[in-house]
């Protein structure tokens, strides 16, 4: 049996999940039955993470308790701070997270008495601390404290980054972005995390697998690549010319297209609206206008639509977030989805090990070195 050259497991059903549905009819996204539109409009990221990890929306006391549990898990152990300080200042923030979370797995291993949800919550609560501790240390030598008065994970992230409480608008925008990035069925990083979990490896190993897989520009790294592209243009007309040239050279435009969605990414309209709102308030309004022009050109020339990564870029920049932290924010959000999938995989585990179609040589006769050409 031959497989299509472009394989990539496209359209292959590789397992079963109750966590989310991506584009069941070519459109749409739900987390445990709730539409992404409702979640983005009415939920907080903490409610969404609880929904994904615990399987149901929290009631009022559960939510209050959950938020306070997360707020109590932000600080970093001294050994982890030392490890972060030793990383070169040239380290990519995704490598900081991969290393930091791996180190946390050695310092606070998965062991008796800690549930899987406890580890997921700890990671959600301290992921921003790991990243921003390193960020400030490498920038100025400052050893920041992870405690702030901001209650939400989104607020805490912006507070640690900028050293002050964020505006309500920015906190809400980042919160919505975390909801949009939280979960997406069998995307590459989640599938990779499930493969690791299926070998009965530990929770942290499955998460670091996810981080490594998310980093590439065909997946999570696209939000950073999209920003670099957009920022390279001074005017929408330059952007149009530049994109047409790239397409003529058969280059990929990061932030467009999707493996599963064929018409549109339902998350893109939501983040686009936030990006537009944030731009009204931002110093640099040019990025949103240029993004819109690129979107129009891609639709007209290639019938390709913006995915979640594209307008996330301009939205993040309007909140003063440096490009290198874009994909790590995706990690922060996706920790909730990865955790839900690791828990689901473990609950009904069988080693994930597909077959390959062999396309190598027929059996050959062994030759000693002096007989080889
Ligand atoms: C949150 C997320 O992770 S969303 C995904 C983020 N990634 C990106 O934005 C990277 C840019 N996009 C892409 O590379 C692709 O659309 C992917 C990787 C997301 C999906 O890829 P696949 O389903 O494997 O599609 P595939 O790579 O086969 O592309 C099909 C055709 O569309 C073209 N195409 C797909 N995406 C793009 C793009 N962004 N720019 C230009 N052309 C594209 C391909 O060149 C190919 O054309 P061809 O048939 O003439 O060779
Ligand atoms: O589903 C995918 O292939 C990629 C994606 O959009 C995500 O992980 O959010």
Automatic annotation (TrEMBL):
It catalyses: oxaloacetate + acetyl-CoA + H2O = citrate + CoA + H(+). GO terms for molecular function: 2-methylcitrate synthase activity; citrate synthase activity. Keywords: Acyltransferase, Transferase, Tricarboxylic acid cycle. InterPro entries: 2-MeCitrate/Citrate_synth_II, Citrate_synth-like_lrg_a-sub, Citrate_synth-like_sm_a-sub, Citrate_synthase, Citrate_synthase_bac-typ, Citrate_synthase_sf. Pathway: Carbohydrate metabolism; tricarboxylic acid cycle. Pfam families: Citrate_synt. Belongs to the citrate synthase family. This is Citrate synthase. It comes from Paenibacillus mendelii. The gene is prpC.
């Amino acid at each position: 049996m031959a497989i299509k050259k472009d394989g990539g497991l496209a359209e292959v059903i590789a397992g079963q999940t109750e966590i989310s549905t991506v584009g069941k009819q070519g459109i749409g996204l739900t987390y445990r039955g709730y539409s992404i539109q409702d979640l983005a409009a009415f939920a907080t990221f903490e409610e969404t993470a609880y929904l994904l990890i615990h399987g149901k929306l929290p009631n009022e006391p559960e939510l209050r308790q959950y938020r306070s549990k997360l707020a109590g898990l932000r600080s970093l152990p001294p050994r982890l701070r030392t490890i972060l300080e030793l990383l070169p200042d040239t380290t990519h923030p995704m490598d900081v997270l991969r290393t930091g979370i791996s180190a946390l797995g050695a310092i606070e291993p998965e062991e008796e008495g800690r549930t899987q949800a406890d580890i997921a919550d700890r990671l959600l609560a301290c992921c921003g601390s790991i990243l921003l501790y390193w960020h400030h240390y490498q920038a100025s030598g400052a050893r920041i404290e992870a405690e702030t008065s901001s209650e939400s994970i989104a607020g805490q992230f912006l507070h640690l980054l900028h050293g002050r409480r964020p505006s309500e608008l920015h906190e809400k925008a980042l919160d919505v972005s975390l909801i949009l990035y939280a979960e997406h069925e069998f995307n590459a990083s989640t599938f990779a995390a499930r493969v690791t979990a299926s070998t009965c490896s530990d929770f942290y190993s499955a998460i670091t697998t996810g981080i490594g897989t998310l980093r590439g520009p065909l997946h999570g790294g696209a939000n950073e690549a999209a920003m670099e592209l957009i920022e390279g243009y001074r005017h929408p007309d330059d952007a149009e010319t530049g994109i047409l040239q790239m397409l003529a050279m058969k280059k990929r435009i990061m932030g467009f297209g999707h493996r599963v969605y064929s018409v549109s990414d339902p998350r893109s309209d939501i983040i686009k609206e936030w990006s537009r709102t944030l731009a009204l308030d931002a110093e640099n309004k040019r990025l949103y206008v240029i993004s819109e022009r690129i979107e129009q050109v891609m639709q007209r020339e290639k019938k390709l639509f913006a995915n979640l990564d594209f307008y996330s870029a301009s939205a993040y920049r309007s909140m003063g977030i440096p490009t290198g932290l874009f994909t790590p924010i995706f990690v922060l959000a996706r920790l909730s989805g990865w955790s839900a999938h690791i828990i689901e995989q473990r609950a009904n585990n069988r080693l994930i090990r597909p077959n390959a179609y062999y396309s190598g040589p027929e059996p050959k006769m062994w030759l000693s070195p002096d007989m080889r050409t």
